[in-house]
């Protein structure tokens, strides 16, 4: 069967931000109009499929002002996963309203939707999920062997239970409450700082033996610390807790120098 002439235009137009390189055929088939129709239908379905796939990005319900939201976004950017942030106004209490509670019953950000069916909350669980699902992208954040994974999990748990709460209380009382026009508990912040210093002494020893917390490569154990420590330094003015410790300071420079984290910083309000 001979096709004498095909005239075609690029679809979609180049001014649309859709990465499709296929061709939309507006064609003149002298010998077979039926074949022309088949090709048109095929290409149209292909285009709709690509557009639908493009829309299937990870939806993150949270705020760029939230440490936990930034933990998830840091992981998404490290793994080169497309996402859409659905802003939740924490100041207006949107995270405590019925619509958000349907996604996260404890009223905390972030929560995610991946596709039409899968929903998840808790930032560290989300980050592990992303790192597992998209293991073929970006750096390996979870480790390859059972032993490596266990060490990564160990230090993620340390961050969650021995580090994060102390950092949060310092930031909350020295920065967040005063910004809201309220008086923070400075004594509590002072006590938390003393405890955090002891935790960082343990980090100092660990980081004298390994380049990163879980070994010689950057992992989820390091990523989990980024947002909270950043706010501790920039907003609560506690950078000396890091800089007074040679190994911790070197580690902090290493992990904040990553291109993915620099992209996160560009998103901050």
Runs in which pLDDT lies below 50 for 5 or more consecutive residues are 1-30, 50-54
Helix content: 40-55%
Derived structural class: alpha+beta
Strand content: 5-15%
Q: Based on Cα principal axes, name the global outline.
A: globular
Radius of gyration: 24 Å
> CA-to-CA gap between the ends?
61 Å
Strand count, sense and barrel status of the largest sheet are: 4 strands, mixed
SSE pattern, N- to C-terminal: EEHEHEHEEHHHHHHHH
Mean pLDDT: 87
Query: What's the total helix number?
Result: 11
Spatial order of the strands forming the largest sheet: 4-3-5-6
Number of strands: 6
Pfam family, one: GST_C
Transmembrane segments: 32-51
EC number: 2.5.1.18
Domain GST N-terminal: 56-138
Summarize the structure.
54% of the residues lie in helices and 9% in strands. It is built from 11 helices and 6 strands.
Task: Write the topology of this structure.
Blueprint: E1 8-10, E2 23-25, H1 33-55, E3 58-62, H2 67-78, E4 83-87, H3 98-101, E5 111-114, E6 118-121, H4 123-133, H5 146-179, H6 186-209, H7 220-223, H8 226-234, H9 240-243, H10 246-256, H11 259-267
